[in-house]
From TrEMBL:
<dbReference type="GO" id="GO:0005811">
    <property type="term" value="C:lipid droplet"/>
</dbReference>
<protein>
    <recommendedName>
        <fullName>PNPLA domain-containing protein</fullName>
    </recommendedName>
</protein>
<feature type="short sequence motif" description="DGA/G">
    <location>
        <begin position="208"/>
        <end position="210"/>
    </location>
</feature>
<dbReference type="InterPro" id="IPR033562">
    <property type="entry name" value="PLPL"/>
</dbReference>
<dbReference type="InterPro" id="IPR016035">
    <property type="entry name" value="Acyl_Trfase/lysoPLipase"/>
</dbReference>
<dbReference type="GO" id="GO:0004806">
    <property type="term" value="F:triacylglycerol lipase activity"/>
</dbReference>
<dbReference type="Pfam" id="PF01734">
    <property type="entry name" value="Patatin"/>
</dbReference>
<dbReference type="GO" id="GO:0005737">
    <property type="term" value="C:cytoplasm"/>
</dbReference>
<dbReference type="InterPro" id="IPR002641">
    <property type="entry name" value="PNPLA_dom"/>
</dbReference>
<feature type="active site" description="Nucleophile">
    <location>
        <position position="88"/>
    </location>
</feature>
<dbReference type="InterPro" id="IPR033902">
    <property type="entry name" value="PNPLA4"/>
</dbReference>
<feature type="short sequence motif" description="GXSXG">
    <location>
        <begin position="86"/>
        <end position="90"/>
    </location>
</feature>
<dbReference type="GO" id="GO:0055088">
    <property type="term" value="P:lipid homeostasis"/>
</dbReference>
<keyword id="KW-0812">Transmembrane</keyword>
<keyword id="KW-0442">Lipid degradation</keyword>
<feature type="active site" description="Proton acceptor">
    <location>
        <position position="208"/>
    </location>
</feature>
<keyword id="KW-0443">Lipid metabolism</keyword>
Amino acid sequence: MCFEKKQTKNKQNSCPEITNYMLACQPPLNRTRRRRRRTICEITGMTVVNLSFAAAGFLGAYHLGVTEALLRHGDKLLSSLKACTGASAGALVATIMITAPDKLQHCKEFTYRFASNVRSQRFGAVTPGYDFMLELREGIEEILPPNAHQLANERLHVSITHSKTRKNCMVSSFTSREDLIKVLLASCFVPVYAGMKPVEFQGQKWIDGGFTDSLPILPVGRTITVSPFSGPQDISPAHKGISKLHLRLANMSVVFSKDNIIRLNQALFPPSLPRLKALEQQGYQDAVYFLKKERWMQ
């Protein structure tokens, strides 16, 4: 069953039933609760660490740079890593981190090729005759190992949105590789942009998890947040402007700035290959800075 937690005492309403899957259907965890849990972890000496990758579209190249830095220099962090979570492109990178870290270079090459193919279309992803979701599926199938669903069980948490109720669900249990692929596709499905038919999973229709929780926070341990948009996340581009105004977008706080507006456009309309590689390098550098600051650098 999939349950949505309500503030009303002793009352629970169920989301659409999804047989044999562990789903946590609830309002996104707010940052006040996250800070409280982090304090408890510090008091009790817990070392549980999670990674959360924000919804990013083609700015997922930034996440790939972060992942490379963590794999190269973050052994101290990774030794305490319990789970990875994410939405949309962030969910894809979280999956690579958990199931196929050895395929990181393959993932980069697919990202560049995918972006190039979208750019070559007259109207981008919405060009008639171009199947965005089919190309994404083919890329996922190329990269995921045969036992990806087993590696992902209880270690990968994917944010998806019910197409009718617009309620968020976190999927963390997968009975087959195909079901894992369906959940990942659902988390990346932006209506109209990616197609007209939401992804069907266990009899229900789902769309991009970024609509309802674009930066999931897990309930146990410290969740390290990664975002290609400037904001208060643990790993994100530094804000270089003077604006102090922050916007809250589906559970993620971002700085209201010209740079972030440009980034938002590039998430859907992929930039050139040099720009994608620059984003990847920026992610790498920002992750190295974070590891040094936290004394996790190796």
